[in-house]
Amino acid sequence: MAVNAMQITDIYQILNSIHNQATGKVALAPTNTAEFVSQATATLAAGTDAVYNALMDVSMNPIFSVRDYTEKFKGLYKKDEEWGAIRRKISYADRDINEDAIKTWQPVDGDSADQWVIKKEDILEMRFYGSAVYEDHFTVFEDQLKTAFSSPDQLGSFVSNQVTHNNNKYKQYRENLSRATLANFIGAKVYLDNGIVHLLTEYNAETGLSLTAQTVYQPGNMEPFFRWVRAKINTLGRMMSERSSEYQFAVQGKNINRHTGPQYLKMYIDSASLDKIDAMVNTTTYHDEPLAYADVEGVNFWQSIKSPHEINVTPSYTAANGTVATAPAQNVQKIFGVMFDQDAIGINQYFYAVRNTPVNARRLYYNTWLHARMQYMNDLTEKGIILLLD
């Protein structure tokens, strides 16, 4: 396990599992995100060639069905300057103020004041180690495919789109690891019961209603509920901007008071719910709200495209004594959204290389290899709130 360890981890098995859940190839499955958080295409079409056995004889101009993919969760990425191979994070805990300040204003004869009394800062230093690796390759044939295309330009387009396809695949794997890093944060927060907001429970308590996750979507209930949710999110955002220890986990007993202004606040909200808020609330209210400046992104699903509103992960977290721990499996359902400080979750790709082999003189092909090293971080000492629709 590479969590906070000076080693590289080959995570291809869990990476494939995460990717298959996200793409719908398999259903939601228990996933050990603690392993790395430091926490559809048919075969190519042309038939008499001996290479792919899928490319047909040339009879018309081909259409290359590949387009560049824009990955999601890019707001979680950190630059190398922010997070290198080893990241140190130093936080300052509050100590009580001096007890004898009154003497400054009420001097007493015969008394003296020592201005050289030492008062050391209460420091918490945390370190993030470890990385996960990605490796893939594909083969480019120089001469064997010439019979499948009518011109060198077509063959060049085929190879170019082959590169684009494999780059898209890499970006989606990276995206899905980002998704799993967010899921690890949710699972850890739920396990620690820290910063969890039960939206329906609070709404019912305030209104005297008894709505459920199903009846809340009835026409008469939906609009007032989502107006309330918008107001609740605004309130929580302002509360996070207060310098306090709320919505964060304490390590080694350090009383670290943090504040997350709207410019540092990131929000990931269920896309369907975000659409309802936009349609029912934002179109009829115009306020200069602090959260208008927050980074808000819709999430179509949290782990598996087949189970959009739940996760099933075994998360890593920093225990109260400062060591890395693994929580029991957390099956969290009815996830509405996540609000967190930009420093609470981070992803960094600090090595990326694409290299071609020489041409194989006997078989007339070469391989293109893609290598990457990435780091995934959760910091529960930063502010974070999990919104559940229960």
Strand arrangement across the biggest beta sheet: 5-15-12-6-7
How many distinct folded domains? 1
What is the N-to-C succession of helices and strands?
EHEEEHEHHEHEEEEEEEEE
Please state the oligomeric state of the protein chains shown: single chain
Shape designation: globular
Description:
The chain is of the alpha+beta class and 390 residues long. It contains five helices and 15 strands. A five-stranded mixed sheet has the order 5-15-12-6-7, with helices on both faces. Strands 1-4-14-13 form a four-stranded mixed sheet, covered by helices on one side. Strands 2-3 form a two-stranded antiparallel sheet. Helix 4 (219-240) crosses helix 5 (271-282).
Record the SSE blueprint:
Blueprint: E1 8-10, H1 12-23, E2 87-93, E3 122-128, E4 131-141, H2 152-192, E5 196-198, H3 199-207, H4 219-240, E6 265-270, H5 271-282, E7 295-299, E8 311-313, E9 316-318, E10 324-326, E11 330-332, E12 335-341, E13 345-356, E14 365-378, E15 384-388
Parallel strand pairs: 1-4, 5-15, 6-7
Antiparallel strand pairs: 2-3, 4-14, 6-12, 8-11, 9-10, 12-15, 13-14
Helix pairs in contact: 1-2, 4-5
Task: Pick out its properties.
single chain; 390 residues; alpha+beta; 5-stranded mixed sheet; 4-stranded mixed sheet; 5 helices; 15 strands; globular
Please provide a brief summary of the model.
The protein is α+β, with helices and mostly antiparallel strands and 390 residues long.
